[in-house]
Structure of Peptidylprolyl isomerase:
Amino acid sequence: MIQFLHTSARGVLLSAALLAASVTASYAQLGVGRPVGRQILDGIVAKVDNQIVLRSDVEALYAQEEARAEGKPLPPNLRCQILQSLALNKLMLAKAETDSVVVEDSRVKSELDRRMAYFIQQIGSEKKLEEYYNKPVKQLKEELRVQVKEQLVQQEMQEKIAGKVSVTPREVRQFFNRIPKDSLPYYSTEVEVGQIIRFAKTNTKAKQAAQAKLNELRARIQGGEDFATLAKQFSQDPGSAAEGGYLGFFKRRELVPEYEAAALRLEPGQLSPIVESPFGFHLIQLIERKGDSFSTRHILLKPETGAADANEAAQELTKLRRRILSDSISFAKAAKDNSEDKLTSGNGGLIANRQDGSSYLPLDKLDPAIFFAIDTMKVGSITPPMPYRTDDGKDAMRILWLKSNTPPHQANLNDDYQKLAAAALNEKKNKALDEWFAANRNTVYLEVDPQYADCQVLNSIN
């Protein structure tokens, strides 16, 4: 069966299967499984200019593939494939240095915070995460920082090389016609699901309670207690609480306007009044100004929502549902104008497939909450409002719309144009990357450990 991911030596890079967006290398499956228990004698197995690949990098990813295989035999040259992929990524990093491609520290921090918040939510709490890995969150983040930064730099380089590549309908058809008929993929049942989300509005009493608590903490800090200690104890920002509320340096317009405006009115060491933002209520302390950047720490409190607050969101969605079902407004228009989920509102409310970016979701891989909601629905139906909790822990209500339900079938242009277009685009982008690698592979110094002398990485870069 033909794969819709390019699998040439250089194309392995784009698939990112070995450098997944969860976390690789030293914590290959943070949030998924514990680090591999067996001991590995570490050492450098490849150098690409001043970039290095460690034996532990290769072995951690090999162990990850072993776990995924669930006892099935692995390709005999898998370690070579892994080394090849890692070396190609290091080539990209090496060229990023010479091309002055950089990623702002604020972006790295934001991505680290996002991932850590996700892991904390998945495992249940920050304390459980720390117990699971026997390390504080701050240390986990520091150990992942280099990997996250490298991944972001690689993304920037890929965008620079192939970001403007596009495909025409004619190219999609040509791509489809090149696939041997007996190799066309067979798709299981797929659905398109739309959602409209409304957050549970925080009531006045809860807001007043959060403000009162922050004013109490403000008084305690002014009375001599340590800001960082109180932030660790009370702040509800999973990204910064473990670091005493420290956010690091940001430039203007990189933080939400309410926070930035309050912070920039302060002198170093000064405390702000209570500041409200879309994230909740903040107590801010300015630490330092440096040119156009500034560093702060904060304590964030998120007012709790109750049943009455969710009820208001449910009533809004009930009215909206009636309008859609009576054909006075389309679901896509209603989602665009009313949904508070930024990821889906601009796409007519449709939930994207994280694997290929299309709107088609394999039924057997659906989120259980969505699966059981739509399992018996007819196409075009809309659920009543249902409770929902976002990835960042916000209480909300949502309605789900079953746009389509495609039975199992062999790939064809009519039903699977989106997938085929994405695959054709991926192939074309990989071709652009292939050409870039061919032009740049001889511009770097490469050294490979004799243990891997037979791997194709030597032919791929030299």
